[in-house]
Amino acid sequence: MLWNLITKDLLRVKKTPGVYLLKLAFPLVITLLIGFTFGTGDGDNSFPKIKVGWVDEDEDFLSQFLAGAFEQEEMQKHVKLQKLTWEEAKQAIENQELSAIIRIPPNFSKHFLKAQKSLPIEVLKNPSESFFPRIIEEGVLIAVEFLNALSRNLKEELPEIVEITSQKYFPSTQKIAELAEKIAKKFKSAEKYLFPPIITLKTPSDAKEDASKEEKKKAPSINIFTLILPGLSALFLLFIAEQAMSDLLKERQMKTLARYQTLQSSLFSLVFAKILFGVCLLIISGIILIGGGGLIFRIQWQSPFELLLILVSYSFIGTGLVSLLISLVQNERQMGALNSIVIMGGGFLGGSMIPVSELPAVIRDHISIYLPNYWFIESIVQLQQGTLSTHDLALVSTAFLFGGLLLSLLSSVFLQKRLRAGGHP
Question: Among the ranges 69-73, 254-258, 281-285, which has the highest mean pLDDT value?
Fold first, then answer.
């Protein structure tokens, strides 16, 4: 009888698969959009380069010095500088080829060395972007503050620097020595702030950096889709479970459950059959999402068997949770409202929408860790990184399975209680 109930529901899905296919398509499309926005990974998890147009109308030593800062090895990992004319740069930003333009005004270096106010450095931001242009703008503001501080503190020495550098012949060593002594005195007055610096930047030692690089070479590369797909899958599998388990509410409203009770005193077998149907549907959907998504996004899943175990056990607790929610409502309107709040709220707090690490500590430490989608996501990510132990895998899977059975039992109790009360709470 149990198998007949399951096959009946599966055949009904086969006849009208449209709604399920639509819910399967959503996470794949969202994953695709997010992944291509921030880069696909493919072994290189660096942030996408910011394309910047450089318009140098000064063409003197200071503008060349600033351009050289963007061409340093470390900066080139994050910024791609393109030297263009003003017209070329404007055309490029209109064609969405640049995130921002930096324009250095004429005679900028000469005015700076003479401590004279010059035309401002201009930053033209791409209006269709918000994040990358802001990074460039903040970087230019830092450079401007540095140049202003240098100009204020070396105001007397700058004309001498101009005089020495503008001479056609080699300057006298005495003038160079006197200028160096003046500059040294300025630094000497700020010695307690500069040596040692009050504010420092802590970075790994060269040895640790080399070790880290070696570990990264040995460790499997983490495709960015690996971090996005599990979270969205956990969320949309619950929506598929909602669709699958909604028949419980329809059958209660159509008095099917009441008629079933004339044959069986307990509803547990019927509810459990619905749970198994939901589990089967979620496993198939999960394989399509994670397996098919892996093929589409070129994700190399490291442990397919363990991954399947996590999916199967999560399917139990997912369908159990939705069946419990359905047993608590009276009609489809209440079901839609309650399920949306619980599923979307749980998705947000459990890390399906944003990483849990970005949530406040009080939520992360006291709410997220009790949500099934959190453990589903964490288990898959740790499994992919090779850090999920056999003990943790068994613990999570067992908790999901027993949690699903407990929720199924509770939903059958609540449904039976509601039927005895005539459909009212």
Answer: 281-285
